[in-house]
Records
---
Amino acid sequence: MKKTLFLTLLLASGLFLSNYVSAQSFTSVQYTVGVPFGGLKEHVNNVSWRGTTIEFHREVATSVTVGVNFGYNVYYERMPYGSYSKGTATLTGVQYRYDNVFPMLVNAHYAFGTGTVIPYVGLGMGTVYDLRNTDMGLYTLESKNWHFLITPEAGFIFDIAPDMSLKLNARYDNAMKIKDASAFSNLNINFGFVFNSW
C-alpha cells in the first residue's frame, strides 16, 4: 500500500507542478457525512457526522478535470454493557469503538454541459489509511492498515458567482481486502464550496 500512496502523490505532483497546462483549476472544500458498509459497519454501525474533503482539480479537456482528493471521517459508537470476546479473551464492560478513515485519491470528473446547474460523474483510485480502535476500561485494541481504494462519484455543481460554485455529490469508497484486514466501504455525502481560478 505504501507503493500505491507513493504513485498517487507522484502523479498528483506531476499534474499540479507542471506548467505545460494553462487551464482553469478548482479548489474544493466540503463537509462530509459518511455511511459505513461491510467490514466498517461491523465495527461501527453509526453514521459519521465528522468529516471533511479537500479537492484540487485542473481542466485537461472540454468538460474533463483531473485532480487529487483528500478526506477524513471519524466513525464512533458506544456499545452497551456486556461481554465481548476477541480470540480467546473475554472482557465485560462498556465498549467504545472508533474508526478514523483517511482516503487519498487521484480522480477524474466529466461534466455534462454548461449552465447554472451542471451534473457530473467521476472515478478515483488511490489508497485509504484506516486507524481502528476498540476501547474497554484500561484496554485498547488498535489496528492500522492501508487499503487500495476505488471510488465512483456523481454529483452536481451549482454556479453562484463567476469564481465560486456550490458542490453536492455522493462518493462510494471501496477499500479492498488485504492480508491483515477485510474489505470495507462507505458512502460519503459531500457538500461544500468550489473556488475557480485561472
---
Amino acid sequence: MNRRSRDGTVRRRSLRGRLLVASVALVIALVGGASAAGAGGSSGAPDFSVTTIDGTTFTLAAQRGKVVVFDFLQAGCSSCAEQVPVLSRSATRFAAKGVRVLVVDLSGGRASALRSYYRGKLGASKRLLVAPDKGFRVAQRYRVTAVGTTYVVGRRGRVRWQGLWLGKEKVLLRAIAQAAA
C-alpha cells in the first residue's frame, strides 16, 4: 500500500505496520470495540481465571499481595513477538519482588501449539506464564481494543498502569518497578 508524504514522495507502508493494523482491527471486532480505559475502576481489577499452557490455573484474585503484569498478545503477530522477550526477562528480573507476568493469548491456538510457539520459537522462560483467552472472556472483561495492551495490577488488586509500550521497554519496566516498590 502506498502513501504520499507531505513533500509529495510516495512511501510504502511496511508489512509490519499492515499486520499490526490488521491485528488491532481483529481484536476490536472480536471484543465489540469498547475502550480499555475503564477496566480497573475504583473497585479494582476485574477478576479472571485462565488455564496456562503448562496446565495450571491462574486466577487474578488468588494473586493478592503480588504484582501481576498481563499483556494481551497474539501468537504469530510480529510486533507481539517483539514483546515476548521483554516480558520473559521481566518475569525473571522481578520474580523475587513478587511479580507474576502473564501473556493472555488471543490467537485461539491450543495449549500445545502455544507452548511450541512461546517456549520453542520465541524462547520464553517458564517464569513467563502463557494462557489462551478462550472465548475472549478476559479481553472482553478488560475491554481490550488493541493487541499489545498491557495491565499492571498492584498488590491490593488495583490497576496501577495500563497501555501500550511496544518499543518503549523503559515505560513497562518503570510501571512494574513502581508497583513492586
---
Amino acid sequence: MSILDYLDLRYYVNKSVVKTGRSKGPGRLDTPITVGDIKRGTVTDENGYENEIVLFLRKNKADR
C-alpha cells in the first residue's frame, strides 16, 4: 500500500456517516454525523447552525 492509498483511505474514513442526529437549530433538521465530525466535536446542519457532539458511554445491559 502506497502513501497515496493511505491518505485516500483516511479521507473516506473521515467522510463515513456513523449516525443521523437531530439539529438543535431552527427547523430541527436530521443531520448526518461523520467520523470527522466526531473527531472535531461539532457538526454543521444544512442551515449553517453548528451543533456540539457529546458522546455518552455506558455498560452493557448484562453488566448493569
---
Amino acid sequence: MTKIAVWCRHENDNIIGIGPNIPWYIPSDFKRFRRITERACITCGQTTYESFPNRTLPNRKIYVLSFDEKYEVSDKENHFVVNNPSLLRDFSEPLYVCGGASVYKMFMQNDAPEVIVDSCYKGELNPELSGQPVDITFCIDMMMRDYEKVSPDYDEDNVITTVWVKKGAEVSKEILNHITLSIINK
C-alpha cells in the first residue's frame, strides 16, 4: 500500500488551522484536494471529519481515526471508525492521509507516507478567526530531511503545490501520474 499525505499549509509558519478552522478560503485549493482524493480511500481525525460539509466527501471511503469507540459516522456504508491506527498499516490500496495535525504527525513518526502533496498558501490568514494555531512544522522538517521533490512548483491562486517522495521509496507511476494530473487539470 502507498500512503499519500495531502495538506495545505501557510507559508513561513506551517499553520494548517486556527482552532478547528482553515484560516483561508481558496476554492481552487478545495477543488485540487477533491480531484486528488476522489474515488480514493482517505483517513483523517475526528475533528477533520466533522469539518467536512455534512460530515462527508462524495465518492470516497473515509476512515476516521477516533479514540471514541462509540463514535458514529454519517455514512455507515462508506465511512468507518478506526480506533487502532495500526489497523491501517496493512491497507491494500492507496491511502490518502488528510489531517489534522496529530494524524499527520502520527503517520510521519510511525508509518511515514511514501508521497506528500505539499500545498503552501502564500497569502494572509483570516484575521477574524480566534483560537489556537495548528501547525505541522514537525512534518515539514521531516519532509525537508527525508523526502525529495519530484515535481515542479504548480502555482494557482497564491498556492504553490509540489509533490515529494520519500527517499528510497518505490512509488508506482500510476499514483504519481494521478496526483500530477489532479494538480494541473483545473
